[in-house]
């Protein structure tokens, strides 16, 4: 029936840290331009995660994100208690469009421009064509009438709507042929049963005389 009472010991229950991730200025990354993620919580240590995996070296109060995915943060209080901060930051990533086009032209017909650009990773894109004669177009694949035969430098630019700094250019020099103006040949008197020499102006590839 013997008994003894131990000494009284104090137990301190420390609360889990209450932290949250600050909303970033934008929820997308523009190619190599990072998005800053941060928390206002002051703790003893931090660890950032991407898609549930530890980001090596990301152990500061803020982190510059360069990869798309879901970001979370674990914080540790001054007494060693850990918790996951409130909020998951989901980031998309946009890259520069790859610009390319082909051209179909001929004599006295509209020149057709075929847009071959790859904008899969660029989001919505604005296109701007410069036809080299002072005219422009914002259509995807436009056509254009050139009034003079000449060599023209045609430029296509593509700009990401989300990231205006992501602009790509492509240029090509095209030769636009235009048929020469018609002329009135001098009237020639011919003699019956006598060969008459007729001369057409030079510069053509093929000639067709009527009547033959």
Query: What is the ordering of alpha helices and beta strands?
Result: EEEEEEEEEEEEEEE
Please tally the β strands and state the result.
15
Unreliable stretches = none
Helical fraction equals: under 10%
Please indicate the percent range of residues in DSSP E strands (runs of 2 or more). 35-45%
Q: What is the end-to-end distance?
A: 140 Å
Radius of gyration: 37 Å
Q: Classify the secondary structure makeup into a structural class.
A: mainly beta
Count of helical stretches? 0
User: Average pLDDT across residues?
Assistant: 93
Sheet of most strands: 6 strands, mixed
Note the overall shape.
rod-shaped
Features:
15 strands, single chain, 212 residues
Could you explain the architecture of this structure?
With 212 residues, the chain is mainly beta. Helix content is 0%, strand content 36%. The protein is built from no helices and 15 strands. It has strands at 28-30, 35-38, 45-50, 53-54, 62-65, 69-76, 82-84, 89-94, 101-104, 111-115, 125-130, 136-137, 143-144, 150-160, 167-176. The termini are far apart. The mean pLDDT is 93.
Write the SSE topology.
Elements: E1 28-30, E2 35-38, E3 45-50, E4 53-54, E5 62-65, E6 69-76, E7 82-84, E8 89-94, E9 101-104, E10 111-115, E11 125-130, E12 136-137, E13 143-144, E14 150-160, E15 167-176
Parallel strand pairs: 1-8
Antiparallel strand pairs: 2-5, 3-4, 3-6, 6-7, 6-8, 9-10, 10-13, 11-12, 11-14, 14-15
């Amino acid at each position: 029936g013997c008994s003894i009472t131990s000494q009284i010991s104090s137990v301190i229950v420390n609360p889990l840290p209450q932290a949250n991730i600050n909303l970033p200025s934008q929820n997308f990354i523009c190619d190599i331009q990072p998005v800053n993620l941060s928390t206002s919580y002051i703790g003893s240590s931090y660890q950032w995660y991407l898609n549930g995996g530890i980001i090596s070296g990301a152990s500061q109060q803020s982190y510059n994100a360069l990869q798309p995915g879901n970001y979370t943060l674990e914080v540790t209080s001054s007494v060693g208690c850990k918790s996951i901060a409130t909020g998951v930051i989901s980031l998309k990533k946009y890259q520069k469009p790859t610009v390319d086009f082909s051209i179909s032209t001929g004599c006295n017909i509209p020149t057709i421009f075929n847009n071959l650009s790859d904008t899969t990773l660029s989001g919505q894109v604005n296109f701007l064509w410069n036809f080299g004669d002072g005219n422009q177009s914002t259509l995807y694949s436009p056509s254009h009438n050139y009034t003079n035969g000449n060599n023209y430098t045609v430029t296509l630019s593509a700009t990401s709507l989300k990231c205006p700094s992501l602009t790509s250019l492509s240029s090509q020099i095209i030769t636009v042929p235009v048929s020469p103006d018609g002329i009135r040949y001098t009237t020639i008197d011919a003699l019956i049963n006598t060969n008459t020499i007729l001369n057409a102006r030079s510069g053509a590839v093929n000639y067709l005389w009527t009547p033959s």
